[in-house]
Specification:
216 residues, mainly alpha, Rhomboid-like fold, 8 helices, disordered C terminus
Length: 216
């Protein structure tokens, strides 16, 4: 029990640290009357290339940041708890992937916020659980679908608000799906059946074959 609690808490360290950085930057921006918008992605412009790496750190307002806080914390905790051995690689890949996709196809203007990462995490957790066919991970897939299934509509320009970066959402989703396939052989795997169970299955199959006959 103690070990489980330690693992739960350990999985929350990096997500909480990231959330802390986001709030510190927002307080600094507001307190110093600065504008960090130019740290975002500006598609196909040299001035916006650095935003591929920095755009999730910037939010338009505290309301924007608050809206992203809980899903980012929960989904990143799921990643670091269930996929702890490969979680940093997946998180970084989604971070860069959604920024790069936005840079390539985004509409003119500054794209900021951690929403792309949220979409990437949600899609990774969903598709990874389905592909791995491991019961605890499939359960997480279903939970993510129940909690955040409605997010899918904001990936398309027909449904997203005019000031919403649907490109960032789409980019995150694509990055998450790619990661779910690219890392399929790494991290938690479905347990192999025990030898006794395999023997029993083979015996049952053999008995079925012996009992099957055909008549002329």
């Amino acid at each position: 029990m103690k070990r489980d609690i330690q693992r739960i808490l350990a999985a929350a360290i990096i997500p909480l640290f990231i959330i802390l950085i986001l709030y510190l930057l927002k307080f600094l921006e507001v307190g110093m009357d600065w504008d960090f918008t130019h740290l975002g992605v500006y598609p196909m412009e040299k001035k916006g290339f650095f935003g591929i790496f920095a755009h999730p750190l910037v939010h338009s307002s505290f309301k924007h940041l608050l809206a992203n806080t809980l899903p980012l914390l929960f989904l990143s905790w799921c990643l670091f708890y269930f996929y702890r051995d490969i979680a940093p690689y997946i998180f970084f890949s989604i971070w860069i992937g959604c920024g790069l996709f936005t840079f390539l196809i985004g509409k003119p203007g500054w794209h900021i916020g951690a929403s792309g990462i949220i979409y990437g995490l949600a899609f990774f957790l969903f598709f990874s659980g389905i592909l791995r066919k491991h019961i605890p991970l499939v359960a997480i897939s279903l939970l993510v679908t129940f909690l955040y299934g409605g997010l899918v509509w904001n990936m398309f320009p027909q449904f997203a608000k005019a000031d919403t970066s649907w490109e960032g959402h789409m980019g995150g989703a694509i990055a998450g799906m790619i990661c779910s396939a690219a890392f399929i052989k790494y991290g938690p795997q479905r347990p192999e059946p025990f030898a006794d169970e395999e023997d029993e299955e083979e015996e049952e199959e053999q008995q079925e074959d012996e009992s099957t006959y055909h008549t002329d």
